[in-house]
Amino acid sequence: MTVLKTSMRNFLAHKGRMALSAVAVLLSVAFVCGTLVFADTMNTTFDKLFAATSSDVTVAPKDAKSDETPQNGVPESLPASVLEQVQKVEGVKSAEGAVSSMNVTLVDSDNKNMGSTTGAPTIAGNWTRNELRSMEITSGHAPRGPTEVMVDADTADKHDLKMGDELRTIAQTGDFQAKIVGVATFKVTNPGATVVYFDTATAQRELLGATGRFTQFNLTAESGVTHAQLKQDVSQALDGPYKVQTQKELADENREGVGEFMSVIKYAMLGFAGIAFLVGIFLIINTFSMLVAQRTREIGLMRAIGSSRKQVNRSVLIEATFLGVIGSILGVGAGVGIAVGLMKLMSMAGMNLSTADLTVKATTPVAGLVLGVIVTVLAAYVPARRAGKVSPMAALRDAGTPADGKAGLVRGLVGLVLTGAGAASLYAAATAKKATDGSLVLGAGIVLTLIGFVVIGPLLAGGVVRVISAVLLRAFGPVGRMAERNALRNPRRTGATGAALMIGLALVACLSVVGSSMVASATSELDKSVGADFIVQGNQRIVPQAEKAMQQTPGLDHVTRYKQIDATLTAPNGKSNDWGVTAADPSYAQDLRRETTQGTLSAAYGEDAMSVGTDYAKKYGVHLGDSITVAFKGGDTAKLKVAAITDDAAAIDQGAHYMSIATMEKYLPADKIPPNVIMFAKAEEGQEKKAYAALKKSMEPYPQYQVRDQTDYKEELKDQVGQLLNMVYGLLALAIIVAVLGVINTLALSVVERTREIGLMRAIGLSRRQLRRMIRMESVVIALFGALLGLGLGMSWGATAQKLLALEGLGVLDIPWPTIIGVFIGSAFVGLFAALIPAFRAGRMNVLNAIATD
């Protein structure tokens, strides 16, 4: 009980210092809990949606997948005769045919895309009774003919659509127009999909290109008949390639695709939360180390009156537990707020999430509390052990914790060994022959060098701080020299404070180098390999009507089609794989200058000929002139001669197998031929600008596709990488904020520790302004120390990662010096900001009271 009271008294006596550490715990726990709540809420939203939209039992084509469209762009379908069979099955209360397609684009009269900007699908289908499970008509009526369409309320609100507005639906089978006659509102949360409904005949004709066919049948079970029993009875009654699923099975299948995406987001965000926790550990270690040092005499008195080492140790750990519990409880609450904020941001971006679905599982606050408390207690363990080792006499003499030169030597040797092992791992990764092998070694190198720099930080602090001070502080005379001495006074403390900032900046530098190198490599590859003037592509494959519009554009020398086909390849050694093939027009050999190790690419576009990549040729023992058996999915099997082997060192189309579209058409039925994935065009000589303008005009009716020349393509690639990096930097900002709190706390505690010294300096003439400047300079030096270590470490990681990317064809190393220099200068401002409060408080000290401080 005495230990508990002592711990509580000490905790409350330093509540201001503890508050900053508690904020670090709060932020880290909040990010973890916010991520978990956000992910659980997303899962709840999709679970409700999938459960509401699924009938008791569904019947669909065997190979149909709810989140995929077949390679020909037209959904798989079943004849209406199957519906008649299903209706006769015992236990079926009702059955109806449904038509649905996600390979559509919806545009208004101004050719503006009505689809989602977040990747959510545009879904077109027929209005059925099953839709009433999840939607209700809130305005107008359901479509009754080929010129009528009903839209969902979210899309209508977002794009200000009204009754009577005309919409054009672009499908694989053609374009068709209809006027809005109704609006349907979701009963559950719609995460952002655009949904339109037609009458059944129109949906069949325009979306499937045939009448009397459906994409699935929705069955309702009679009272007392379970879904599993109905599925069994229907499966026994049907004889053919059908997929029969219960409501739960279909919902699980739909959830699986979304779950993969959600898992990536969830674990990525948890990874950044882990980085923030790691940075917070340094803050907590520094806080307790300094608090223990300031209570040296008090600890000596406790030991002198009978307190054991364990009791002193326990007292510090109890304080840490209080800190962890308070910070974690506040963090759990803040985490819910973060989740709501993320939901609002997603809604602004187009993904609608309702706070009514906010899901806080019991495991979330438990995980936050346990994680926060454990991390805090572990971080305080080293200072607690150090406090317990203080002998009573040494403490009463105010000698503090004994300087352990042997421990410092051991620490230095361990740090050098770890850093050396990490450097060796990075070298091994940079010289690896395969990217898959090198990536594992790279990961080991990053971890080892990071830990090594953290351990060796106090040794590096002496030299690095002196260099920074010589450049920045000497010009400020005695004040600058005092700031340098303060930063060097406790190298272990400076090392730990700088290490917290080092971690975040190392990741920033590494990702900047990788991102910049990817853009530079891709730009170089485009300049070297791409001969086409224009590239047309989008999120969906190019529909025939858009292809025709492109081919009829004036000023073009040629247009190249590019298709991807599902096929099984069997090499001469009898080994098979589902590698797939690429079919293109012969002009593709001009549009993409692929290097070959044997043969010529133009020869691969001859009759019954193809090319393979060097990786495939090596793996399966294929040589020029060999024949490969190609079994086209949905078509015939062909024996094609290998007329070229392309070099897979290139980044573009790496591993692609080429053949001509004429060869593909010979073995694949017309209704199985896939639309183009991408198309290329070359302008007539001297007509580049006119052809570019004409092509953009030709493609205006199809806003789902982008027309780019090579300059546009490079800029978009740069923007995409930049957006990704900005997102990552935003997440890393949490770790940097925690590191800034660490600098503030270190300076604040350092000011308290030097109270008498500050009073004496003020007494002999140091002005308040000079005092504040000294503390700000000390903060800047510590921040720049961490920045130098972090940026140097991050650039070495990034350069090594680029060597691995070079094995995948991205061979240009580009150091983004403006970013690196900007981050370094920004670190100085971070140091200035962190020193504002400690410097202000130091300047307000009463000189006499400071001198009299014991």
Rg, please? 34 Å
Strand content: 15-25%
Shape: globular
The number of helical segments is 26
- Unreliable spans are 398-403
From the N-terminal CA to the C-terminal CA, the straight-line distance is 28 Å
Q: Kindly state the mean pLDDT as a whole number?
A: 87
The secondary structure category is alpha+beta
| Share in helix | 55-70%
Membrane topology: Multi-pass membrane protein
Keywords: Cell membrane, Membrane, Transmembrane, Transmembrane helix
Domain ABC3 transporter permease C-terminal: 272-392, 731-846
Protein name: ABC transporter permease
Give a quick precis of the structure:
With 854 residues, this protein is an alpha+beta fold.
SSE map:
Layout lengths: L1 H12 L1 H39 L3 E5 L16 E2 H8 L4 E7 L1 E2 L3 E3 L14 E5 L8 E6 L7 E5 H6 L7 E6 L2 E13 L7 E5 L1 H9 L4 E2 L1 E6 L5 H11 L4 E5 H48 L1 H9 L4 H41 L13 H26 L3 H5 L8 H26 L4 H38 L4 H13 L1 H39 L4 E5 L5 H8 L4 E10 L1 E4 L5 E2 L3 E4 L3 H4 L4 E4 L9 E5 H7 L6 E6 L4 E10 L11 E3 H7 L10 E6 L4 H11 L6 E5 H44 L1 H9 L4 H39 L10 H18 L1 H8 L3 H6 L2
Tell me about this structure.
- This protein is an alpha+beta fold and about 850 residues long.
- It folds into four domains: about 10-55 and about 245-400, no CATH class; about 65-240, no CATH class; about 460-530 and about 710-854, no CATH class; about 540-705, no CATH class.
- It contains 26 helices and 26 strands.
- Strand 22 (about 625-630) and strand 23 form a beta hairpin.
- The protein starts with a helix and ends with a helix.
- The model is unreliable at about 400-405 (pLDDT under 50).
